[in-house]
Design brief:
This protein has 368 residues and is α/β, with parallel strands linked by helices. The chain is 41% helix and 19% strand.
């Protein structure tokens, strides 16, 4: 599995159209009125990776298994959603299940498509969504706080630490301070992750622009970029035209899609941009296993050890890990096979401390 990405934004900003393009489906109802999406649509898409095809061709693999991403299209949020306005915080609950959030922001003018706030103002729109996520977090934290105070009459040390952490986070949020996962030390990191706070989810920003702004952006996208810079956020802005992506989605072949993109001066689809942004934001990398039976891509956190990578395949591989035989992707391709790479001295024997690198091709040895 790659990662789960929640697509959020105000109603009528193009979320469902973009979801359909990203998930290469027409599952989400795209309509010119609020709350066209009343249940979260989930789309699973294979992560495109040419390296899979190269490895499978070399090994004449019987099957090729990519890694996958889940896109979750969440109903349009409005001001007051955390208190039940619109479709309420039922949908904020769905956001808690994702690994990263993609904020879709409307950055185009079109009098035929209504805007819930009547005027186009990307910065204000984003403030509404972020405020609702924070207010929802505060509600969750206050409830946790009350429960801990009520039941912790025995002064349990672990629960006292959790209570202290909740009070610290609340004090930040009440002062409109943004919090970041980097603000917490290793001791509190697991506790923070258990709280599953929306405002701590890694986020990137999809600017839905008109066709003429897809390469250079426009005044709306520049305004949003300035806002994010002023907020001192680590951010990634992706320019997407929902109209263009809708046209690409109905083309039959990859060749037609590439030709269409080239005509517009584009090098990649929105899907490719989102995958790259997500992997970078979440510090994810890909390793491979490849042989006659199967060539497969696997996703791990950057900094993972060889046993942790082995555990992605099967927990027994991690528990009984002995060593990993690994070849870099470039060496594998340069020499044309595992056997030739081994003979050229490019296969390495790595132990438990080895840190996985992007594109490593592994064979794991383990005790049953």
């Amino acid at each position: 599995m790659g990662f789960k990405c929640g697509i959020v934004g105000l109603p009528n900003v193009g979320k469902s159209t973009i979801f359909n393009a990203l998930s290469q489906s027409n599952n989400a109802l795209a309509a010119n009125y609020p709350f066209a999406t009343i249940e979260p649509n989930v789309g699973r898409v294979a992560v495109p990776d040419i390296r899979l095809n190269m490895l499978s061709k070399i090994n004449e693999s019987l099957s090729v298994i990519p890694t996958f991403m889940d896109f979750i299209d969440i109903a349009g949020l409005v001001k007051g959603a955390s208190e039940g306005e619109g479709l309420g915080n039922k949908f904020l609950g769905h956001v808690r299940e994702v690994d990263a959030i993609a904020h879709v922001v409307r950055c185009f003018n079109d009098t035929n498509i209504t805007h819930i706030n009547e005027t186009i103002n990307p910065s204000y729109d984003l403030d509404i969504i972020e405020s609702e996520l924070i207010l929802s977090d505060m509600d969750v934290l206050i409830k946790n706080q009350a429960n801990l105070i009520k039941k912790n009459k025995s002064k349990n040390q672990d629960e006292l630490e959790k209570l202290e952490l909740i009070e610290k986070i609340l004090s930040y949020l009440e002062k409109d301070h943004k919090i970041n996962i980097c603000d917490f030390d290793d001791m509190n990191l697991d506790l923070v992750k258990d709280l599953n706070l929306l405002s701590l989810k890694p986020a990137f920003y999809i600017c839905n622009v008109d066709e003429n702004s897809i390469i250079t952006g426009n005044n709306y996208t520049k305004e949003l970029e300035e806002k994010l810079q002023n907020d001192n956020q680590k951010y990634k802005i992706i320019l997407v035209s929902a109209n263009i992506e809708a046209e690409i989605a109905i083309l039959d072949s990859s060749e037609e899609k590439i030709e269409f993109l080239n005509e517009l001066g584009l090098k990649e689809t929105a899907l490719s941009k989102v995958i790259q942004a997500g992997y970078s934001l979440l510090d994810l990398i890909t390793f491979f296993t490849s042989g006659k039976q199967e060539t497969r891509a696997w996703t791990v956190d950057k900094g993972s050890t060889a046993p942790q990578a082995a555990g992605k395949i099967h927990t027994d591989f991690e528990k009984g890990f002995i060593r990993a035989e690994t070849i870099s992707y470039n060496d594998y391709i340069d020499h044309g096979s595992e056997h030739a790479s081994r003979n050229a001295g490019k296969m390495r024997q790595e132990g438990k401390e080895y840190i996985v690198k992007e594109g490593d091709i592994f064979h794991f040895l383990f005790n049953n």
